[in-house]
């Protein structure tokens, strides 16, 4: 079958399965299989797809038609301009989470008290595939980043991604920041925040539910994290100066109240991302 014909047939099949990005997904799968970029694929509509390639492609299309996430089919996703291995044990990293890395870089590279303290000790809590912690380590040229997750399968993926990016980061199986390995300056916490009764799209429904849903209002896991930070027994935890979170914008006011009870006040907001500072916050942006 020729490229153009395959794209037409596949786009229609995925569209009939209610895949909104049917044309784009078809192109991405074809690019992967042919090992060619999009410009080449679109410029060579009459090229014949080899039978063995066609067989592999059609299996992947069947998986996508069943609403399996495209990242699981490909075996990787992109975050902050880099590739990360993903599988059924981890969430696909979302583009909105990239703002957390932007805000982190802004905090550490400008005139704030912590900008003069290096290397910064950072923990990625609920790391999943490791995208946030690994991106932070690479962008900041900082090896003082640790990865935490309650799921050993997630940590295996995160460890693979760290090695793939030539980093030697420590991975800890923990319930949030329970029994921290050492003191940290900063927490990156992209925790489950979707309310239990929310309807999610079919592809997201194929991802680990424990990494998506966060209780009736979506914020139960954040409550536990800030309770840990506020614990009278947690001197190591209480040394954390900044906490980055991700949540739905309508949840931000309630999350702000949760953080305030642990003596963390809002410093900055950018779409889904919030930055909290221990003690009095000096500015609130956006």
* Radius of gyration of CA atoms, rounded to a whole number: 21 Å
User: Quick one: biggest sheet?
Assistant: 7 strands, mixed
**Annotated CATH architecture of the largest domain:** 3-Layer(aba) Sandwich
How much of the sequence is in beta strands? Answer: 15-25%
Overall mean pLDDT stands at: 93
Give me the number of helical elements: 11
Question: Which structural category do the helix and sheet elements fall into?
Answer: alpha/beta
Our measurement of the CA-to-CA distance between the termini, rounded to an integer number of angstroms, reads 52 Å
> What letter string, H or E per element, gives the SSE order?
HHHHHEEHEHEHEEHHEHEE
Shape verdict:
elongated
- How many beta-strand segments? 9
CATH superfamily of the largest domain: Vaccinia Virus protein VP39
CATH topology of the largest domain: Rossmann fold
Percentage of residues assigned to helices: 25-40%
Give your account of this protein's structure.
With 286 residues, the protein is of the alpha/beta class. It has two domains: 64 residues, Orthogonal Bundle (Helicase, Ruva Protein, domain 3), CATH 1.10.8.10; 200 residues, Rossmann fold, CATH 3.40.50.150. It has eleven helices and nine strands. The chain has a seven-stranded mixed beta sheet, with helices on both faces. A two-stranded antiparallel sheet has the order 1-2. Helix 1 packs across helix 2, helix 2 runs antiparallel to helix 4 and helix 6 packs parallel to helix 7. The protein is elongated. 36% of the residues are buried.
């Amino acid at each position: 079958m020729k490229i153009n014909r395959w794209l037409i047939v596949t786009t229609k099949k995925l569209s009939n399965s209610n895949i909104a990005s049917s044309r784009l997904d078809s192109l991405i799968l074809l690019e992967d299989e042919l090992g060619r970029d999009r410009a080449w694929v679109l410029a060579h509509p009459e090229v014949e797809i080899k039978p063995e390639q066609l067989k592999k492609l059609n299996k992947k299309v069947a998986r996508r038609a069943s609403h399996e996430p495209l990242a699981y089919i490909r075996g990787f996703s992109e975050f902050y301009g880099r590739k990360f291995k993903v599988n059924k044990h981890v969430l696909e990293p979302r583009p909105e989470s990239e703002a957390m890395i932007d805000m982190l870089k802004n905090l550490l590279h400008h005139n704030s008290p912590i900008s003069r303290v290096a290397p910064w000790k950072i923990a990625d809590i609920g790391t999943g595939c490791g995208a946030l912690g690994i991106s932070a380590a690479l962008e900041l040229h900082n090896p003082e980043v640790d990865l935490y997750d309650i799921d050993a399968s997630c940590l295996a993926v995160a460890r693979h991604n760290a090695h793939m990016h030539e980093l030697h980061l420590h991975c800890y199986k923990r319930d949030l920041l329970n029994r921290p390995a050492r003191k940290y300056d900063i927490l990156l916490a992209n925790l489950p925040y979707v309310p239990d009764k929310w309807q999610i799209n079919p592809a997201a429904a194929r991802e680990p539910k424990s990494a998506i849903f966060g209780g009736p209002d979506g914020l139960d896991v954040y409550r536990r994290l800030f309770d840990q930070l506020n614990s009278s027994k947690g001197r190591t935890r209480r040394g954390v100066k900044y906490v980055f979170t991700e949540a739905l914008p309508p949840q931000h006011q309630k999350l702000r109240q949760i953080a305030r009870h642990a003596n963390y006040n809002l410093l900055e907001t950018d779409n889904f991302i919030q930055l909290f500072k221990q003690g009095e916050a000096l500015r609130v942006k956006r």
